[in-house]
Amino acid sequence: DALFELYTPSFSDPRSDQAMEVFSDLLSEFSNIILPNLKSRHTQFLIFHFGQQSEELIDAFCGTCINIAFESQRPPVLQQAASAYLASFVARGAHVPGQIVVNIFEVLGYHLDQMRTLYEESCRGPDVRRYAPFYALMQAMMYIFCFRWQDLISSVPDDVDKDDPSSYLDQEIEWVAEIKEIMRRNIYSKLNPLKVCSPVIVEQFANLAHRFRFMYVYPLLESNKRVRLSQYTVGAYSSGGGLRDLAFDVNDESWQQLDSYFPFDPYQLPTSKRWVEQDYLPWRPIPG
To answer: Among 12, 76, 150, 182, which is most exposed with the fewest C-beta within 10 angstroms?
Structure first.
């Protein structure tokens, strides 16, 4: 609460040089302190709040995350964290304009295709250890889709009410060019991301994608039930010896799947949450 109070005067004109200067300092601290500390709970909401004050600040934060996520010399764990921060900011930020959502989705899709092309040559099947940056990016895109699907639509039939999400169900919706194709070719690649990404996010994406006639992935989810992740990863740990030594249950696949950490999930501190309540898109279940 004290930090929100401290920084607020600097953003009285969010398009000023002073605001950008102070935000640059916040971004530096974010990159060097907050981002490497995995599963930070609340400090990052300073960036979430002040980063939405203007489009210039939104661009500055998104650009920082993109640079970290796609600089090959960065440790994979930092690349994954940057993907999660970017997706969570775009998905949850109430003041992030629809056009920026589309732009970010397209940038992520471009890099996803690049990674898939690179990884598929050596890929025998889904393996979170070897291809973690690809899966983190795919999960980020599904997460953004679940929250911001309306921004990814280019046109709808006349009888759709844009204020009523349930009126979109089972309609012939036209999506922004290439979005559907990007998702399809990566979901159905040898890397098989729906087997590795967080089951909660995969299930929500599958449900929405089906009901909005975006993509029907349930047959793939069914066939994935017969895929054992251990057959692709055990060999990497001395033919299972390492797994036995560490008392892993090879039938429990949760340790071979991505975590569903998204850093701008609900903010719970009672005194200071007043600062971010208007910045925040809550999850809206769709009736029907």
So the answer is: 12
